[in-house]
Amino acid sequence: MMWRVLYSLLWWLATPFIRRYLRRRGQKAPAYLAHWDERFGRAAPSGRQGVIWIHAVSVGETRAALPLIHALRTRWQDAPLLITQMTPTGRACAEALYGDIAEIRYLPYDYPKAVRAFLRAYRPRFGVLMETELWPNLIAAADHLAVPLFLANARLSDKSYRGYRRFIGLIRPALRQLTAIAAQTAEDAARLAALGAAEPQVCGNTKYDITPPAEQAQLGVMFKQRLGDRPVVVCASTREGEEALILAAWRANASSALLVMVPRHPERFSEVAELAQSQGFKVQMRGDEQPVSPDTQVWVGDSMGEMFAYYHAADLVFIGGSLLPLGGQNLIEPASVGKPVLIGPSCFNFSDASQKAFDCGAARQVADAKELVVVIKQLLADTESRQRMGLAGLAFSQMHRGASQRIVALIDARLSDGE
């Protein structure tokens, strides 16, 4: 209890800094300035109660929830849906994916009064926290109000485990108040158990259950028509600092392929285009809706919700967030459309999926940007190797499906036990 009192006090003390952070982020991304009432627990709810509530912090978790949400709707067809996020990009993704079937809003920050008011307003039938969303005050309030709360698609890297160990007095009670935990892997389950979780179940990763949307394949064909006959290399979900490394290596080891850069955060679209131009590249933007000139070297993907289309248009895909020590991003999606995948040295956020992809030949790991460009040129000259990697990716993405149904079965069983 003392740990949670201190934790709550820190939230109150941090409030001015949180507001300042939102204002500063809002200078580049105005969406951060919207819906403050929801973030601080002062928004009027819709009035719908008995919702099935899914919390997915940002874009990756929101997309990963898609097959699970379909499975939940199949099982509980009459229940209204509430989907919450913490980031503007996550909210925009949720609006695009679920806006016609669910209420979308921000989850309040973890102030005790705010999260209690949120739960009382909606009285969820049950809640699902995606991946590693451990908010002690929220979990304690759900336990107090008898709202069953599940941690689904749970993952915990060794780095995160070591961080949580420092606050074991706060984290252990939160984990024990959850109704059940569905972990991605046995390693994730073991780390959660070591922190105090009671019998986490291994259910797999819902990202494998995502079916590439047909409309994205059609858009990918349109992209390819705009891009012309050149080979296309997509650098997906790149993070700040990575683009400069890739562009410098690309310049030093020139390729005739078109380099497509899709930054992870939309506020950086223009920044990346300006960076490429400053290094002497001819640049076009996806948003100009124009055919790509034969002498254009870099095409910046300045759009949201179209990643599968970029993958369909690619001959080769590099997964961002992996050249710097950021843990990587989702490699399953490009593999699921049969594209060869390259990953940098940092992939701790997707360590299990990455290792499985390496083992079956669906992906290759590179040490740095220089090696990345060398391997790109080798693979673009070797059609047979790219085809083998693509076929291995299709098999890899299909082999591990079924997590969403296993999670729903776990939720159903625990709810039945509690009746």
Structure overview:
This protein is α/β, with parallel strands linked by helices and 419 residues long. The chain has helices spanning 2-28, 36-39, 59-75, 88-98, 112-122, 136-144, 158-165, 168-177, 186-194, 214-227, 242-252, 269-278, 307-313, 332-336, 351-360, 369-380, 383-399, 403-418; strands at 52-55, 81-85, 102-106, 126-130, 149-154, 180-183, 201-202, 232-238, 258-263, 283-285, 298-300, 316-319, 341-343, 363-365. The strands form two sheets. A seven-stranded parallel β-sheet has the order 3-2-1-4-5-6-7, with helices on both faces. A seven-stranded parallel β-sheet has the order 10-11-9-8-12-13-14, sandwiched between helices. Strand 1 (52-55), helix 3 and strand 2 form a beta-alpha-beta unit. Helix 5 (112-122) crosses helix 6. The model has no long low-confidence stretch (mean pLDDT 94).
Identify the notable features of this structure and list them briefly.
about 425 residues; alpha/beta; 7-stranded parallel β-sheet; 18 helices; 14 strands; globular
What's the SSE blueprint?
Layout: H1 2-28, H2 36-39, E1 52-55, H3 59-75, E2 81-85, H4 88-98, E3 102-106, H5 112-122, E4 126-130, H6 136-144, E5 149-154, H7 158-165, H8 168-177, E6 180-183, H9 186-194, E7 201-202, H10 214-227, E8 232-238, H11 242-252, E9 258-263, H12 269-278, E10 283-285, E11 298-300, H13 307-313, E12 316-319, H14 332-336, E13 341-343, H15 351-360, E14 363-365, H16 369-380, H17 383-399, H18 403-418
Parallel strand pairs: 1-2, 1-4, 2-3, 4-5, 5-6, 6-7, 8-9, 8-12, 9-11, 10-11, 12-13, 13-14
Helix pairs in contact: 3-4, 3-18, 5-6, 6-8, 10-13, 11-16
